[in-house]
């Protein structure tokens, strides 16, 4: 058998196996989010792929921690000096939930809401902070979540009235809009 025929026979034998493997990989279902075991501090609904009930993702603190905690040092117009914030980057949360929208509507405990373009959800951008200077944020201190921008790290981008207006605290709901 010449080399051309060997390649053809090999291709005919392996082709279906490779095709089956690729089809199986693409048919694999995504693992749904687990149910929260602690108090829910954030609900994300709308155009998201990962949910854990009623078309929304209900997240407790442990679930947010598992997405990945980031630390940011920055000053704000509401605090004195530079503070250390810990939380999840908005971009990382949106990727984790498979968000596919153009606008995010962020809603606070008192129903105050802001809309921001999805393009704000960039790596190194806003942080959904749950911890400031060694203390968990409570509703009395802008918690459970406070959207903090890296004001000092990227002053040309974030030290402005628009970013300050989008720095919603007591955040509890994010709606991913088409």
Amino- and carboxy-terminal Cα gap: 58 Å
Q: Spell the H/E element sequence.
A: HEEHEEHEEEEEHHE
CATH topology of the largest domain: Sulfite Oxidase, Chain A, domain 2
Average pLDDT: 87
* C-alpha-based Rg, rounded: 22 Å
Low-confidence stretches: 3-29
- Put simply, the count of helices is 5
Beta-strand proportion:
25-35%
**CATH class categorisation of the largest domain:** Alpha Beta
Per DSSP E runs of 2 or more residues, the count of β-strands stands at 10
Say which CATH homologous superfamily of the largest domain is assigned: Oxidoreductase, molybdopterin-binding domain
| CATH architecture level-2 label of the largest domain | Alpha-Beta Complex
Number of structurally distinct domains: 2
Largest sheet: 5 strands, mixed
Helicity range of the residues? 25-40%
Q: Give the overall form.
A: globular
SS-based structural class? alpha+beta
**What is the spatial order of strands in the main beta sheet?**
2-1-10-5-6
